[in-house]
Amino acid sequence: MKLLAIETATEACSVALWSDGEVRERFEIAPRRHAELVLPWCDALLAEAGVSRAQLDAIAVGRGPGAFTGVRLAIAVAQGIALGLGRPLVAMSTLQVLAAGANARDGDRVLAAIDARMHEVYWASYCIRDGIPQETSPEAVVAPAAIDVEGDGWHGIGTGFSAGDSELAKRLKQQFVAIDAAALPHAADLSRLAATAFARGEIVSPDLVEPAYLRNNVALTLVEQQAARVRKETTR
Questions:
Q1: Which of 60, 120, 206, 208 is the most buried (most CB within 10 A)?
Q2: Which domain holds residue 202?
Q3: Model's pTM, two decimal places?
């Protein structure tokens, strides 16, 4: 099975190719360069592996939450490739992808958090089962002070732990065995999660993929932009 994975929801631009269990990845912290890098990286990975686009079985995409421009880019690129090839998409939560990068074992609990700016973080919690982060609290965007967890032995991962003068890390550190506040999601982890999801039949038509913005004001802004374009076209 061959799968191309795209994750650009944060300042990290990342693309990976899963080819029958072998993973190749390009990853770079490259704010504002995602659009420049993502397609050339896709082509380079395929060329290195000797895999043509026509040999791909599916495209995987990190659907957010994260920076809305990055989320939109990943989905647009993934949709374009998938529609052009007539292949399905596997859409995964960027927070789940981030949680998959924690050094956690089966039974461990992981809190994944991404700095959402505006004094908020995107977060969700997971339990590792059969190597897969299974969601135990839903994705949300809140102030760090609003996040609480029960018990100890947690693993923390993501830039949300360094947001707001590391408020989340400082307040909950006694309940965590490890916190990686610099970690960003990797397409390699996305490809592994997506390969398992694909095997379970968890695919979607490219035109049905929905971004996870979480912030209503971002969604409203996008609707307003679309409405403005429609008004402009109808007045020509």
A1: 60
A2: 2-94+186-234
A3: 0.91
